[in-house]
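Working notes for the structural subgroup meeting. M.R. asked for a predicted model of this chain before we commit to crystallization trials. I am recording the input and output together here so anyone reviewing the notebook later can reproduce the run.

Input as submitted:
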Amino acid sequence: MILTAARERFAADGYEKATIRAIAADAEIDPSMVMRYFGSKDKLFAAAAEVDLRLPDLTALPRETVGAALAAHFLDRWEEDEGMMILLRTGVTNEVVAERMRGIFAAQLGPPAAALCGDPAQAPARAGLAASQVLGMALCRYVLRLPPVVALSREEIVHWLGPTLQRYLTE
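Returned structure, recorded in token form:
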């Protein structure tokens, strides 16, 4: 109940404007209960923004389809997961949240990048470049709402983004 209220409040107001009092009011509890269970706004946010990218096993896919599959997967994730949107909106203005995002993408996208590129030393750069593409697309489509990007169909985005992700991960 508290985490649901926190996710909704962080998504609506962003990290900076969301307050423990407002979250407690949304959850219909006393603010002291939020503090009792989570200890601080930062810890509550960390719990509310726990995100599993739920990446498919990219190494099990035909190698030539990895980029398109990853592009399609991230489109689905941005459109269905409020936690992803909380991180995106808040990460651009809050260093604690930005660090959280860096950790999530490095931990979850790094291993498949290492397996696909064949050179573990290149994996962090490749994962970072892939993350820059999906995060940039999401920021432009879902937060900034750039009209040309919003107007693109899912298939068009996969068509444009897929080859770039493919190159970053496999070439």
